[in-house]
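Let us begin with a simple case.
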Amino acid sequence: MTAGTKEDPWELATPPGTSTYVMFRDDATDPPVLVCQVGSTTLTYQARAIADLHAWLLEQGDWVLLGAADEKKPAAPGTVEAWGRAEDNPVGGWYGLRKGYRGRFGMYLPPLLEALGLAELTHEARNNRMRALRK
């Protein structure tokens, strides 16, 4: 397993396996962030999303649709994407930090949780789901 640092980032693939990207944790910021580099696009998410998403998935107790969507598009209710921007999640809204690029939580965070051994994902062409693994 890679260290998840800028020098040794996590190398991940989207749930359908159609695109690759890298992520790393930056603890030098306040609050700490996850930096997601997809081609020339950089997205950032609050690093606490890892633990918060895992806890939420444990509460759900079963498979949850990912429902990835861009920031300007609505997220389907009950999906990982909807939770990642919901006013009743632990941060009271968006985990994404870069205005205009706060969406796609349901695309880029689930593979990281899978790589960390915190979740299981399906890897179909569409309508992927995830569920928590107990640690």
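The second case is a distinct protein. As before, the sequence precedes its structure tokens.
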Amino acid sequence: MKCRIKFTETAKQDLRDIAVYIAEASKNREIAKKFVNELREKCRILEDYPESGAIPHDRVLISNGYRFLVHGDYLLFYLYVPEDATAYILAVFNAKRDYSRVMKKFL
């Protein structure tokens, strides 16, 4: 059975913010759309391999079951709930940010 992928409102807003940032920096909306689509596409691996993401170094995040995928300079944090066969994409942000601090708001 395939795992469903659901983007939380926070993750959707993160994707919108990334698109705006890239569009403004590049002066090209198509580049921004393409990159956000790549981020969304990266999550499709979770349909068949929901536990394939990397495990964070933070023990609190580990104990809560968080994992992440990497795409370029971006991290896509998610939580897999086997009972629902669903991977919830929680946040998407630049890897240069301190992910422990960003993810603490989900605890």
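The mean pLDDT is 95. The first helix runs from residue 9 to 26.
Keep these points in mind for the review questions at the end of the chapter.
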